[in-house]
Amino acid sequence: MFKLRCDGVEIVVAEGTSVAAALLGAGVSRFRSSVTGEARGPLCGMGVCMECRVTIDGVGHRLACQTMCRAGMEIMTT
Amino acid sequence: MKFDVAILGAGPAGLAAARAAGRRSASVALIDDNVTAGGQIWRGAPRIAVPTGVRFFPQTRVFDLRPGFMLLTESHGAMEASRLILATGARELLLPFPGWTVPGVFGAGGLQALVKSGLPVGGKRVMVAGSGPLLVAVAAALRTAGARVVGITEQVPLGRIVPFLAKYPAKLPQAFALRARLLGVPYWTGTWPVRFDEGMVTLSGGRTVAVDYLACGFGLVPNTEAAQLLGCRLDGGFVAVDSRQETSVAGVYCAGEPTGIGGLDKALEDGERAGAAATGQAVNPSRGAFVRDLAAAFHLDPRLFDLAEPSTVVCRCEDVALGTLRPYREWREAKLMTRCGMGPCQGRICGPITNCLLGWSAESVRRPLVPVAAELLSKDVLQP
Ligand SMILES: Cc1cc2nc3c(=O)[nH]c(=O)nc-3n(C[C@H](O)[C@H](O)[C@H](O)COP(=O)(O)OP(=O)(O)OC[C@H]3O[C@@H](n4cnc5c(N)ncnc54)[C@H](O)[C@@H]3O)c2cc1C
Ligand code: FES
Which of A7, A35, B249, B335 is most buried, taking the most CB atoms under 10 A from its CB? Predict the structure, then answer.
């Protein structure tokens, strides 16, 4: 188990967890706002729909479902 | 980097191809965008190991393919191969209904993939909905992971599923084993979700069910884009192949879901044939009626295409609603005027939807296949 942060809140995750799974597991459902401001979250789980985009360690538009958690990661929903 | 054979996709089809090609050829590359081999069904726990001698490139997204053959990747630059095996799998068909964009609504395989990548679902109320054999597999897996599966809704009436199963007795033990893991879970056939609102699913027929997650997928759409970039001929939306899995482009083979949705066994057989054919070995003929029978049994009820309201978003990247699209006759025009399909998913989700709802057919595939950093596209080697 290790720690990372999402929007400043600490989350504890197990090894081998994707960012999407970690956020959903921590109760985050809104990953991004759509172009008209609707809440959106993961849909396809396999890197196709692009609905799970978040900012990871300052890099925008990262796919949460295709990115594995690492200790100390800073994630921002967008 | 240069190889005799490059295999794109490390799902069951790609792994079977690697095993077959590895028997003969010294230089085989196996490329996949995921962290581990296994594809959708074995995600992270492949039942065929990457053969020794085959070079596996995980987390490597191919964003363009060129004749000759060249594969362009973000992490390893350009890779060359004399022969190419495309084993790119499928994605889910997701259909719009009021509420389908609300967080908490996933694809069926989509939620399963998230659970396999560590999402805890213990105690969560989940409805699995849509169509196809995948629903039962997903529901069983969710239950094993501790979810409270409140029901499975399958759009096909029971009267069409029973004869299908009867024709394929070899699949029965698997079907019964899955069903046994789902004791007490209602299986509503001829039923589908019509609305999702504040954690409440409304089903056709009027029943409402409270859920934490709705996992809803209406079958699979083949990933044919890589083959299309190389100019391979399609037939009825699938990559056309001969009895050796070779496409209309000499030296390009295709295996698994892109040549016809048929699940694990078919993917393994295709992959074996493609790997053998690409390395000059003898090939066993395919025994293929299953793909046709599966498609016929799980044919979609046209009423599913009437669930979206004028205000329901169809293109999730650009938030284009159905009502905005109605005035247009074809996708190209709608794209220019509304930006439908122009967002980062490049129409992978809304393309099949506009095909079902509006009868539009997707136009030619755009390069790059996936959004990539601009500086990659400007590098010399990657110029067209
Ligand atoms: C989300 C989802 C979940 C599923 N879950 C199950 C299940 O639990 N049980 C079941 O029986 N069936 C499941 N299926 C059905 C599944 O499609 C088949 O049973 C089987 O996995 C098909 O094997 P395949 O090798 O043809 O394709 P896949 O297993 O899909 O493998 C294709 C691989 O190619 C990779 N790929 C594609 N394009 C590129 C590219 N441009 N660059 C790099 N890599 C690329 C993909 O990431 C993937 O790993 C699922 C399907 C989906 C879409
Ligand atoms: S959930 Fe679809 S791309 Fe991540």
Answer: B335
Contact B110 A25 (CB under 8 A): no
Give the Cα separation of A50 and A71 in Å (integer).
24
Contacts of B246 (CB under 8 A, 6+ apart): B252, B253, B277
Alpha carbon distances (Å) from A46 to A68, B72, B230: 13, 20, 24
CATH architecture group of domain A2-76 = Roll (3.10)
**Torsion angles phi and psi, residue B278, rounded to 5:** -70, -15
Query: In Å, what is the CA distance from A42 to each residue of A21, B208, B212?
Result: 9, 24, 14
Query: Is the previous residue joined to B120 through a cis bond, with omega within 30 degrees of 0?
Result: no
Residue B384's pLDDT is: 41
Beta strands in B87-140 (DSSP E): 90-92, 105-106, 125-130
ipTM of the complex: 0.98
pLDDT higher than 70, residue B224: yes
Q: Chain A: which residues have CB within 8 Å of chain B? A: 13-14, 16-18, 20-22, 24-25, 29-31, 34-36, 38-51, 53, 61, 65-66, 68
Nearest CA in chain A to B351: A49
Give the ligand 1 atom nearest the CA of B73: 42
Pairing state between β A2-6 and A9-13:
antiparallel
For chains A and B, what is the number of CB pairs under 8 angstroms?
103
Classify residue B272 by its DSSP letter: H
Amino acid, res. B364: S
Model pTM score = 0.95
Q: Cβ–Cβ contacts within 10 Å for residue B33, how many?
A: 23
The domain segmentation of chain A, as residue ranges, is: 2-76
pLDDT tens-place string over residues B236-278: 999 999 999 999 999 999 999 999 999 999 999 999 999 999 9
